[in-house]
Backbone:
């Protein structure tokens, strides 16, 4: 599995100052990585245990650094969802 | 005015109608040629029955009196709009036959991950076992969508004397509010709601929501849904989406491999134009099934304005959102009748008994669900133990086109 979709990577690199919302899948319990996420300036929203990971918000530049972490399995956008009424 | 010839509700309607705005009426007339324009020169005939002396017209309110004086006119009614009410869509999928067999969903827990629920609606009295919110508040529905969805799945219809009863009126509801008052949220919130529902030990999760964009089932939300199905044995019903009729418009989590992805049909069993079509971006057929999703009347949340009010306490909405809880409720009935069914066996039962509609599989899946046919199948046959889905072949791998049965088995395997 590639860590990050190439289109997302390009989007992050294009403007490191922009704010982004991401879902990060982690190698094991995400609780152990919270300090590192805080160090990178990323704010944790939800922590997930069934598919271990976290949702984070922060700068695109911080996200680019996050990708280099060994415990990060995958980074993707925390995309909007909506009701499916017509 | 020949008042005895005009229905009382039509009199009420025309007393407040705009003078120049035509209204629809149905006229019963003597069994001879009815010349509407003889009585009202600019009356527009919309329908004229051949076998029976009824004609539908558009006339101005002020002309109805003149119409009633015509000697060939016997009676005039308002031509009222009709809706696919729960009292139509629920019987269409043969639900009452499963009720008659003794199953209404008792003991089954349905998780509704949505905009919340209005627990004060009489149709949910004693039905809401737990509620939570990941978007603030206590989980009370401030949009209306979640209440409508929950009503379709498991409402008792109490407010309507049972008329608008849901598919599994005996099931209990566990609702996670992950979408805000506008009906919007984020994948992460939905994931949190799903984890909560798993912690509540629900049997079924209904996801009448989704994201747009191409989807191959590898995103976090779809992956979580697949995990919930495979590791926890929970049936997950997900809306296909409303981005149809273009191909490859099923978003997440509808594109998840192991969920039951639901598209929408109208009351003539036509796949609606809005219902998202497959295939997924990795080439899998979706949706898996279709259920009624056009003009569905179900419970209205207090203090909300979503939908068209049909009768007090009930509104009409359309979407694959409305089709999906028909599937979730159906799953509840099947699980009550045979509690050891796996999610894939529930999917197998519904898919192999669906009414073939003769449409593209990427529009209709295996057809329109029939819960009684599925129930009959599971009580008369031993459901197969279905293997794990094979890994999809790399792009460009040549393969023989699968036969019909193999295509169905691939769909059941999520491939």
Residues:
């Amino acid at each position: 599995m590639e860590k990050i979709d190439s289109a997302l990577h390009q989007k992050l690199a294009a403007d490191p100052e922009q704010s982004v919302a991401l879902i990060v899948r982690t190698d094991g319990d995400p609780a152990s990585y919270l300090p590192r996420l805080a160090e990178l300036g990323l704010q944790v929203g939800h922590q997930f245990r069934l598919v271990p990971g976290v949702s984070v918000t922060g700068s695109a530049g911080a996200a680019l650094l996050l990708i280099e972490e060994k415990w990060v399995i995958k980074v993707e956008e925390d995309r909007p969802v909506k009701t499916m009424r017509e | 005015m020949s008042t005895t010839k005009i229905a009382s509700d039509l009199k009420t309607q025309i007393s407040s109608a705009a003078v120049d705005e035509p209204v629809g009426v149905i006229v019963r007339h003597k069994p001879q040629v009815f010349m509407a324009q003889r009585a009202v020169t600019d009356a527009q005939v919309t329908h004229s029955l051949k076998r029976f002396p009824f004609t539908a017209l558009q006339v101005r309110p002020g002309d109805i009196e003149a119409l009633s004086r015509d000697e060939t006119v016997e009676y005039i009614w308002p031509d009222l709009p009709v809706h696919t009410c729960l009292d139509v869509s629920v019987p269409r999928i043969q639900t009452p036959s499963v009720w008659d067999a003794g199953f209404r969903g008792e003991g089954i827990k349905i998780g509704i991950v949505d905009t919340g629920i209005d627990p004060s609606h009489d149709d949910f009295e004693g039905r809401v076992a737990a509620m939570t919110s990941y978007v603030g508040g206590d989980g009370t529905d401030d949009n209306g969508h979640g209440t409508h969805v929950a009503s379709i799945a498991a409402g008792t219809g109490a407010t309507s004397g049972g008329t608008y009863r849901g598919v599994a009126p005996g099931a209990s509801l566990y609702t996670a509010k992950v979408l805000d008052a506008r009906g919007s949220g984020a994948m992460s919130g939905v994931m949190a709601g799903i984890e909560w529902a798993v912690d509540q030990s629900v049997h079924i999760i209904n996801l009448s929501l989704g994201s747009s964009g191409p989807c191959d089932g590898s995103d976090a939300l779809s992956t979580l849904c697949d995990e919930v199905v495979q590791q926890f044995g929970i049936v997950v019903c997900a809306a296909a989406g409303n981005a149809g009729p273009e191909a490859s418009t099923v978003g997440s989590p509808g594109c998840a491999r192991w969920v039951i992805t639901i598209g929408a049909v109208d009351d003539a069993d036509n796949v609606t134009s809005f219902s998202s079509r497959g295939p997924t971006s990795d080439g899998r057929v979706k949706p898996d099934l279709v259920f009624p999703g056009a003009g569905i009347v179900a419970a209205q949340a207090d203090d909300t304005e979503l939908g068209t009010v049909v009768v007090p306490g009930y509104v009409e909405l359309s979407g694959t959102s409305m089709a999906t809880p028909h599937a979730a409720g159906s799953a509840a009935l099947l699980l009550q009748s045979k509690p050891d069914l796996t999610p894939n066996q529930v999917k197998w039962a519904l898919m192999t008994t669906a009414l073939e509609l003769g449409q593209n599989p990427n529009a209709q899946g295996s057809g329109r669900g029939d819960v009684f046919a599925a129930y009959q199948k599971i009580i008369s046959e031993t459901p197969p133990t279905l293997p794990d889905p094979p890994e999809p072949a790399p792009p460009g791998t040549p393969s023989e086109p699968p036969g019909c049965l193999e295509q169905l088995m691939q769909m059941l395997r999520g491939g």
Q: What stands out?
A: The domain at 6-77 of chain A is CATH 3.30.70.80 (Alpha-Beta Plaits).
